[in-house]
Amino acid sequence: LKSLRTRMRECGVVHQFRKFQSIFAIGQKMAGSESLQATASNVLQRDLRERVSSSRLLVVGAGGIGCELLKNLVLTEFASIDVIDLDTIDVSNLNRQFLFQKKHVGRSKAEVAKETCLRFNPNACITAYYDSVFSPTYDVEFFKKFDLVLNALDNRMARNHVNRMCLAADVPLIESGSAGYLGQVTVIKKGESECYECQPKPRQKTFPGCTIRNTPSEPIHCIVWAKHLFNQLFGEADPDTDVSPDTEDPEAAGDAGKSALRKNSGNSTIERVTTRSWAETQNYHPVRLFTKLFHDDIEYLLSMGKLWEKRRRPVPLTWSDLPEEDGGGSGGLLRDQRVWSVRECGGVFTACIDNLRAQKAACSDLELVWDKDDNVCMDFVTAAANLRAHIFGIPLKSRFDVKSMAGNIIPAIATTNAVIAGLIVMEALKLLDGRLEDCKTTYLNRQPVARNRLLSTCRLVPPNPKCYVCQPKPEISVRVDTATFTVGLLESKLLKERLGMVAPDVEIQDGKGTIVISSEEGETADNMPKPLASFGIGHGTRLQADDFHQNYQIVLTIQATDKLPEGVEFEIEGDAPRPLLPEGEKEKSEEEKPMAQADKDDVLVVEVAVERPTPRERQKRKTPFDESEDSSHGSTTAKKQRTHNDVVL
Known about the structure:
The chain is of the alpha/beta class. It contains 19 helices and 14 strands.
């Protein structure tokens, strides 16, 4: 192995790949007529081979990385595998999630992945769950059944949850993610290495394409969709980011879902009319575009019944009957700060269509470019995003908020997912062989680094002693205006969104055990609109928050203040500290910083993070690493090359 490694280092990246092909061919000859999975098992020592065959693994996610990972696991002869995924297969998945075919569109990813993998190795025992990992069914006792948990997720909330469940169950977790040509893999072991939440992360801004197109659940999903729509209609169109559901005829969207699914089960190819092609045939008629995007396409999605078995069903909009109620903002606010009503959004949308159509006609063959500083562009995205948000029951946002959340876009790369999946299996084998000390955090870079290597590694970092998740008795201090910050915001914004809790219970540590929030439905509903001060919560008050599902508890010390920055509802003391730079070194501008790994397999948007110091640099700086947000997670601007595990698939 050392000799091989030496020779590989002497060669360039292409030569490395060719040499690997030669070695693999030799392995095939040595195996003779044996099956591929038998060839894989023959390279493992007997003890490790026995552990592989007797261990039980949980794979969370069956998307881009998940497909490659499941294939690798069955070919390595892992005999007992559980896989869980809530998503169904979309046509857009077929170009990189190779376990799926067009006849599978609309079916559960987990179930189809199981069926396909059993063809690779019929001896494997695979259990598929078409469900959400947040379900109470998958509690700590469930996680304790497994020897290893392998994450192949595409959102930070789920990553946080699985991280906490593995810590509670004391089960090793292998975390992974990819974004374009970038990717990374790391190992999380309770008490031995950093957990997924040991270091602050930017807000999530990378999202799967099928989420953007079919099942949005957050405002940012709708904003990314609206940006895609702008490019589809007036900018440089990308067929892979067409905003409409997969349909043969956009005008016939009412029956298109069933029609498309019927065709996918046959041998005919899927022919799609792009959004721009259809709009041009209608001369960009504003009302017809509105009806197609916010009524007909939604009816098409509703025809895909499995999408809505465990999700809220969207409600199509009708142009002649738009809701008139206010969007939630005050009439005295500036236009940018006020949340527009649905009817107002409809009017702004149609006016922008007329304006942009005229601009495009004046530009002849040139494409329009979306610019957040262009009023018409921003009005279009704000109106379109809020109309879609209303349909899916998502809170509407002000123009100011939409502008701050918009970002850039990158594609998903199948080869990246394959490399990352292979690295996951390598780390899994080390853990099963009892070699935690040999486990690494590995990064896949866009360009070769030292010695012409695309892969770079660093040692696992010890747990952060100030982590509010993996430490024995986590505590945080929260700066908040108790006169205006409500119990509802405490639950939704702080506990669930920021701290990642699923079903929190909160009581005041006042000696009386006063319950402010209960996870029992309706028990404390009357408390939600009340400010914290109405419960006697002030400066120095300690709140104990428990999530029994995650087996997680944290104490919040309130620091009452009325001097928070504009637009900031609360601040967590010590959150996202800035790293100290070596003496004499100046901080680089965003343009000078290198790109880094992002969070997703199916990513459309990427986040920016600060370059992560190596363990040796950490010791010199004696300062915890931080990731500062430049724009978005999911990301919308590319992540910088670093050595950290902020991959939120």
